[in-house]
Design a protein that fits this description.
Elements: H1 4-39, H2 43-52, E1 57-61, E2 64-67, H3 68-74, E3 77-78, H4 80-83, E4 85-91, H5 94-101, H6 108-121, H7 128-139, H8 146-149, H9 164-191, E5 199-202, E6 208-214, H10 219-227, E7 232-237, H11 244-265, H12 285-290, H13 298-302, E8 312-313, E9 321-326, H14 330-337, H15 340-343, E10 350-354, E11 374-381, E12 391-392, E13 396-403, E14 409-415, H16 417-429, E15 435-439, E16 442-445, E17 457-464, H17 466-477, E18 486-493, H18 495-524, H19 526-550, E19 553-554, H20 556-585, H21 590-622, H22 626-658, H23 685-705, H24 712-715, E20 717-723, H25 730-740, E21 746-750, E22 756-761, H26 770-784, H27 794-801, E23 802-808, H28 810-839, H29 842-866, H30 878-908, H31 914-924, H32 926-946, H33 952-990
Parallel strand pairs: 3-19
Antiparallel strand pairs: 1-2, 4-6, 4-18, 5-6, 7-11, 7-12, 7-15, 8-9, 9-11, 10-11, 13-14, 14-17, 15-16, 18-23, 20-22, 20-23, 21-22
Amino acid sequence: MQNKGAIRVFAILLALVSLYQLIFTYQTREEENKAKEFAKGDPQVEINYLDSVANEPVYNFFGRKYTYKECKEKEINFGLDLKGGMNLILEVKVADILKALSNYNSDNTFNEALQIAEQKEMSSSEDFITLFYNAFTELDTEARLAAIFSTVELQGKIDYNSSNEEVLKVIREESKSAIDNAFNILRTRIDRFGVTQPNIQQLEKAGRVLVELPGIKDPQRVRKLLQGTASLEFWETYELSELVSSLIAANSKVVEIEQAKDALNKPEETVAEVEAPQKEEGSDLLSAIESDSTKVDSLALQSQKSLFSVLQPSQRQKGPLVGFAMVQDTSKVNAYLQLDQVRALFPKNVRFMWGVKPLPQRELEDGTMSKQEIYELIAVKVTTHDGRAPLEGDVITNASKSVTNKGGYEVSMRMNAEGANVWARLTKTNIGKSIAVVLDGYVYSYPTVQNEIKGGSSSITGDFDVKEAEDLANILKSGKLPAPARIVEDTVVGPSLGQEAVDSGLSSFMWAFLVVLVYMIFYYGFKAGAVSDFALLANMFFILGVLASFGAVLTLPGIAGIVLTIGMSVDANVLIFERIREELSAGKGVKLAVADGYKNAFSAIIDSNVTTFLTGIILFTFGTGPIKGFATTLMIGIATSFFSAIFITRLIFEKMLEKKSDVKFGTKLTEGFLKNTSVKFLDKKKIFYAISGILIVIGLASLATQGLKLGIDFSGGRTYVVRFDEAVSASDIHESLTDEFTGAQVEVKTFGGDNQVRIATNYMVDEAGEDVDNNIEQKLYNGVKSHLGADVDFKKFVDEHRMSSQKVGPTIASDIKTKAYYSIAFSLIVIFIYILIRFRNWEYGLGALVALVHDVLVVLGVFSLLYKVVPFSLEIDQAFIAAILTVIGYSINDTVVVFDRIREYLGLHPKRDRLGVVESALNSTISRTVNTSLTTFIVLLVIFLFGGEVIQGFVFALMLGVVVGTYSSLFIATPVAFGVIDARNRKKDKK
């Protein structure tokens, strides 16, 4: 083998990188175990402990110190289905933005065009504004957008004479700005939940945002906060000099209160040991907490029990900045300032608000950057009778960043007439003081007023970079467009259900891995099997290392993807070992047989891996959430298994042969298995066509009569998994829920054990909003509470008995359905093109395409026939589409190997009877085909048995696909391809 040195170096480097990446996962687990031990079962204490060490070094890599937070960012990230949490898709409707931009114009053509666009959006790939414009011009060819959008707010951008193209450009820019602003607001709100590793990203479709919140405890609070309309306000502020005496008195009062508590609780009090220096009250917090020579954490500071131990007063008397606090101490500061005895020491109209972002990182004495997050506390002044801000964001007509004369950036804003009058009064009475710009209760900026501002136009200057200026401009515009984000998809997985998914996933993984290890040694002998097993172990190590390197999310389907790559890795080894056995049977020595075996199997392995990888790309492109996780692990697994199976095993075999080791590739029990078969694949093709035809007709009849069971991914609706203390009857629960969910479809099925059910309903599927979600959960509780314990109230039901919930709105369901159609059609086209290019023969492509359509129809037919019979779910959802695409990839994998062998035989025997050569080629692949299919099927069977009910339907589709795909690659694809070739040849002969 050439380039052995380079391959060794690459393998070593890959192993070292994988080890480096996986160490971070190990370190975070170590810290979290310490937190669990310290908390002794109290989840809040555990959270506080981890918060306190978030910025402490926990891992030293050759002098580079990593904090717990940094290790957490680099660890293998579990999906919400494995660790519990909340997954949301929120949508800011572009239709709402256009209505607001038009000042809610009542024009009939405009509003009808919006309705048409909303209907077409469900099944079109065009963006909403294009659909709206097409509908607008179709309804009235003379209609002008300027008549709709030439508002006061858009003055200077659109006037009555603007062309439709000019107006379109402006409303696209304004819509994008509104969506970006909504995204930024959501991101800021999410930071308030205090969850570890939240994920928020804008989706491909305009206006949609994906939010993942692991370990969230209060889903209702999340829904309420994320769906609220942004509240932009302008507040007058206090000067710190006006509050200094109150602040000192407050600190003394806190010390007094805490000492009284200590005296009362002293006999029972236990204080955990903490490593921290003693500090004087009021010492420089910024210097102390960033000092590399000392270790200060929240637990240590709080042990001193004074206000100034957690809040460092500002040294500047001028301005509204009260002081600074570390992020983990902000809640303690809030608690102290809200004490009645402390509130009484401050003016009645003072209100404290935190800055929205931490201070910029500071460079320490050793040249490193500070890792502590420090927030500012601002004092605002309530000057109205009703306690509201004197000026709110709905008066803003426009805001934008601009460049100053000195080359810096400032933010310009313009207000309407009402706002201009209030702004003039505010700025006149606050010259030399600050006005705080507040959104959702957090201070974004507090510029100092230089002079009275009349006319409503003003500028905010500061040390802004371009990004900060853009963000502030967007924040100022947030009050102009009242288009709140609506939840269109909502999934909640309880922590216990997530842990069960981890347990079942790991159990299935270990059993499948063990079965494959034993099988390879049994079939190919101890030495060859052990080499294959070593490659499998290396492959698993590489997969996990690469997953960690890419920051990929490991989901339950992702674990299934890893286990599936075990089967595919074995597939490559089987191809190689079978070719080596053929070379040995031809009389070659072991060394030459190994070299030729690898050489001759290489093209088939390349083809099969490429086709499956293409399927993975399509899955990744069209899938979301767990399905994208499955695609990620599948593609990574294909790449690493290719390297492990081809190169690592080759290096080991060559080393063994250099040492004259006696290597065998079979045992007495398996050497003659399926050798010298003489199945007449082409002669008997009509029989196989008839069998397939009957199966497809039965399946189509079932599809026509009873159809498929659509999951809520495709139909829209809500599902809940509810667990009871004792066994329950699904029919009894169905009866009581039907009374609650009046006029709606309700389905109740036992899910896992007999004390757990899965409830699906389309009740109020078209409605959205926090009140709707809460109302439905209350009705769910009312319907099942007679089966719960007497002590189970609504809160306990949500926390302990409602194990998971999922909501999919009708627009999301329609989009998922459209993507599913596209993904299947696109994968078939891609596979056909690849086969056409690879084999330079369209008949091969046609044969492969017919076999794939055959496989899809058979799987659909079986799902239609069995979904009412089997005890596990056979719903058509995103996971099923992933399974279908994987089946397509696996089926074409088999077909390509068969075609590759046929091409090889035709090249070796050009003068023999073509039919006989093809039959011989097909028979020569039976051992390999059955062997690889059997190992993959066994792996899937293990996942099916041990992987848990959540993925049983998904794995069942894969198992079915392996069986059907193996059959079609031998009995459908080749007969169809060569039937067309023979027909073409006969036609030529006649001419």
